[in-house]
Amino acid sequence: MTDIANVTVFGTGVLGSQIIMQAAYNGKKVTGYDISDELLAKLPDRWEWMRGFYRRDLPDFDEKRFDEAIASIRTTTDIAEAVADADLVIEAVPENLELKKKVWSQIGEAAPERTIFATNSSSLRPSDFADSTGRPAKFLALHFANMVWLHNTGEVMRTEQTDDAVFDTVLEFAAEIALEPIAIRKETPGYVLNSLLIPLLNAGAYLYAGGVASPEDIDKTWKVATGAPNGPFEIYDTVGFNVAVNIIRNNPQDATLQKFADLLEERGIKQGRAGRADGAGFYTYNEDGEAVAPVEAWRLDS
């Protein structure tokens, strides 16, 4: 059993909110930090959105335990208050290197000396901003998959500076919050999951942005031919368009991917259809999170 009782999560968006609930539902005291009260005000709706999935996906789901988890979560827009008692800080802010450096510098200045630092960065190398923390030996990556309660891998990736004891502690912590701990022993952008997943998503983007086929037909081809449960565009809906755009913008030399990111913004994000959490992305979804129909705006013949 680790000594990690108090967890602070920086960023309360689609994945940050899931991390908060995963830790709280599994007995940790959690503080959620974000930059505005407007963003924090969205959390009650996210809890209820997640409740339906927890109820559907977890055979031993406990309503009372979920309510107690909600009641135990604190939120704040003050960095010093957020980290004052933190044993572990998990950062889930957008995929922008300069933003992560800034945020970790602020956390490092305010957090107690004992605090362990973990980034959930999807595609950036933790070593590129480890020094910003002021304590690189206590810094590493803990990567969550979307729909954390169900797709519950916890990829723990060290940098060359990470202390062995910190690495082992975070692996044990991952198990304590009902993740399947995955030890990533050599730093690589994208860990195991995204090193496999991002090429698939990019391939779908190239096919669509190149005018080859509509999203539903690309997904159908992949699912029928391979037996996979989801195609790349259904996965984009689960990941969320904002996350996808932030990752793509880190690859500015790829003109086709940049075109695809522009389309995600224009046809999705600006229309309030940024993925499953919004009820629509490339597909519309019912209250149970099941795909209902393709969104017509994405059809190549529309």
UniProtKB/TrEMBL annotation:
Residues 190-285 form the 3-hydroxyacyl-CoA dehydrogenase C-terminal domain. It catalyses: a (3S)-3-hydroxyacyl-CoA + NAD(+) = a 3-oxoacyl-CoA + NADH + H(+). Keywords: Fatty acid metabolism, Lipid metabolism, NAD, Oxidoreductase. The keyword Oxidoreductase applies. Residues 6-186 form the 3-hydroxyacyl-CoA dehydrogenase NAD binding domain. Pathway: Lipid metabolism; butanoate metabolism; Lipid metabolism; fatty acid beta-oxidation. The keyword Oxidoreductase applies. InterPro entries: 3-OHacyl-CoA_DH, 3-OHacyl-CoA_DH_NAD-bd, 3HC_DH_C, 6-PGluconate_DH-like_C_sf, 6PGD_dom2, Mito_3-hydroxyacyl-CoA_DH, NAD(P)-bd_dom_sf. Coiled coil: none annotated. It holds the Pfam family 3HCDH_N. This is 3-hydroxyacyl-CoA dehydrogenase.
